[in-house]
Specification:
The chain is an alpha/beta fold. The chain contains 14 helices and 17 strands.
Length: 450
């Protein structure tokens, strides 16, 4: 049964009854939870990924994505029941599906231009199996007008179908690592917008069966694309403002974090938290889906990117300030960097602020040790030595800088270190207790001795 142009009740019953086959393209940290939730809702999902080891893992009922609450159990249950299967054969999966869900990365080039190559490649494979009545839902974040000007024309041209024979809708993922299943199932309402009203209607019907918080249909796919990009850009600009305020702490001679907390008691004020930098697959990239892509200036977004990208350097300079006060040259210092991944509780390094921090320290001939309980591959940090958290005191560091506040670091015994230790806290997360260490916390008023 094809979903396009069916009555709402008929479509809903067919979807939940397992009569409409679904293929989810991309089984990464967001794609696998989405595929599993889809499978739980409709009972007939094929997941596609180019990585054979990923497919083998899922086929055995094992989730390769770590740290996602409930994902292991959901994957095991849906695979064992036959509701979820996995394959590397994208074109065969496309031929068998009526609903196609794309959730693959959209990054930027070295020139900060949106890179739609992966989305376009998947769309090309879908086109080989696209039939009248099929719908394509895009969850990958893309620049506005992508569905209208790139995906729909590509599908039509390569499938030989007219654009009114199939549907395209943008249905952005609104999920965070560690809580993806909760988010998909309804932590927030689902935004949907099609390249035509019928595609919007079909997306609305389908996602009502997945998202308990409801669905918000918008005027068209471009509006839905803009919603997702605007969400990320808002956070980038807000964090940049917080980071700029944090850089004023020494001059203001106040605790800026305290002032921010006070300001945020006003309902219309929501200043975010400053930190060592902004990483991940999302926030550092989304502004470039708008900057220089459309008519109109974007100085605020460009400035925000520059401010947030400057924070690793700011953190490093504060570390050097501390060492200077302790009469230690960086080139003679032993430095431990705590937390390498872009966010606490995730095992990814995309645009992680730890990378430029470690690079600068290594380049200036410091002896650098790195600690991250979530990371297995440390090859990105050439020139630095990975150690276990239990070994930190053994290397007798002159300085420690916290970049990512993994919960495991809360157990560090700061009394085990020499009193002259320099500590830079990039996430306002360390409790050093009654120690005599030189401490600088991003957003606090000054360096201090406890």
């Amino acid at each position: 049964m094809k979903p396009y142009n069916n009555r709402e009740q008929e479509l809903r019953e067919a979807f939940t009854g397992g009569d409409i086959p679904v293929t989810v393209y991309g089984l990464g940290k967001m794609g696998l939870p989405l595929a599993a939730v889809y499978a739980d809702a409709c009972g007939l999902v094929t997941g596609v990924d180019v990585d054979e080891t990923v497919v083998e893992s899922i086929s055995s009922g094992t989730a390769h994505v770590n740290g996602e609450r409930g994902l292991d159990q959901l994957v095991q249950r849906t695979v064992e029941s036959g509701a979820l299967s996995a394959t590397t054969d994208e074109q065969q999966a496309a031929a068998n599906a009526s609903i196609h869900v794309i959730i693959v990365p959209t990054l930027i080039t070295d020139d900060n231009e949106p890179d739609l190559s992966v989305v376009s490649d998947v769309a090309s494979d879908i086109a080989t199996g696209l039939e009248p009545g099929d719908v394509v839902f895009i969850e990958s974040t893309v620049p506005p007008q992508t569905c209208r000007d790139v995906v729909e024309p590509l599908l039509a041209q390569q499938s030989g179908l007219d654009v009114d024979e199939f549907g395209v809708a943008f249905c952005p993922e609104r999920t965070s690592s560690g809580r993806a299943i909760e988010d998909i199932r309804g932590a927030y309402q689902k935004i949907v917008g099609g390249t035509d009203p019928e595609a919007t209607r079909v997306a609305q019907v389908v996602y009502k069966e997945i998202n308990d918080s409801g669905v918000v249909p918008v005027s068209d796919a471009t509006t839905a694309e803009a919603v997702k990009v605007f969400e990320g850009v808002y956070r980038d600009v807000n964090i940049a403002f917080a980071n700029e305020l944090a850089k004023l702490t020494d001059g203001l001679e106040i605790d800026v974090l305290e002032a921010v907390e006070g300001a945020n008691t006003l309902p219309m004020c929501d200043i975010h938290t400053p930190g060592a930098g902004v990483g991940g697959h999302c926030i550092p990239y989304y502004p470039y889906f708008l900057i220089n892509q459309f008519d109109g200036p974007t100085p605020l977004m460009e400035t925000a990117r520059n401010v947030n990208d400057s924070m690793p350097e700011f953190v490093t300079e504060k570390l050097i300030d501390g060492l200077t006060e302790r009469e230690t040259a960086l080139s003679n210092a032993t430095v431990v960097v705590l937390g390498l991944t872009y966010r606490a509780g995730v095992a990814e390094l995309r645009h992680a602020p730890s990378i430029p921090i470690v690079d600068r320290l290594v380049t200036q001939n410091a002896e650098v040790f790195v600690v991250d309980p979530w990371l297995e591959d440390f090859s990105t940090f050439d020139g630095a030595t990975p150690i276990d958290q239990s070994e930190i005191s053994e290397v007798d560091p002159d300085a420690v800088v916290l970049v990512t506040a993994h919960g495991e670091f809360e157990s560090i015994n700061w009394h085990a270190f020499d009193r002259s230790l320099v500590v830079v806290d990039g996430r306002q997360a360390l409790d050093l207790g009654e120690t005599d260490h030189w401490v600088y916390t991003i957003g606090r008023a000054r360096t201090f001795n406890s």
